[in-house]
Write a structure and sequence with these properties.
It is built from 4 helices and 4 strands; from the N terminus they run αβαββαβα. The protein is of the alpha+beta class.
């Protein structure tokens, strides 16, 4: 039996991609017609989205640290002076209604690298969507290093007895 296709069903054309090479749509979305309760505009800084993404990524089991070697060294100095940077290792691009994130992580050995990266991607996308209210179009995860438990022991050993 042939499928019954309803030719009267309207189709909505896909939104055009931005021509600027940006990953997010930076066009302004009009307010719904019935939303007359308050006037104004909310602007969310890139740093807010980066901090939310960094906190979410750090909470994933198997993530030892965020950022590359240089960023982690600078982060260690910040920790000493009590100026922790929650957005270390996180780059974001924020538009009017969308966001994209790039996260660099160090995975703890012997955690499965692909699973940790996938969990980071899901946690970051969920946090940005629920806490900031932006549509997440992309979360790229770069695994920069694997942390071995023996690395901590070498740092704690004294050079003299």
């Amino acid at each position: 039996m042939a499928e019954d296709l309803n030719p009267t069903t309207p189709t909505t054309p896909a939104a055009p991609k931005p021509a600027t090479g940006s990953r997010v749509d930076r066009t302004f979305a009009p307010r719904p017609a019935g939303d007359e309760s308050a006037a104004g505009k909310t602007t969310i800084a890139d740093g807010v989205v980066a901090k939310v993404a960094g906190i979410a990524a750090r909470e994933v089991p198997g993530v030892y640290a965020l950022g590359g070697g240089g960023a982690r060294a600078l982060g260690a100095i910040r920790n000493v002076v009590n100026a922790d940077d929650k957005s270390q290792g996180v780059k974001v691009e924020v538009g009017e209604t969308q966001a994209a994130a790039d996260i660099t992580i160090v995975v703890e050995y012997p955690m499965p690298v692909q699973d940790v990266a996938s969990n980071v991607r899901a946690a970051v996308a969920g946090a940005i969507s629920s806490l900031v209210g932006l549509e997440v179009v992309e979360v790229n995860v770069e695994v920069n290093d694997v942390h071995l438990p023996s690395d901590d022991k070498n740092e704690e050993e004294s050079r003299v007895s």
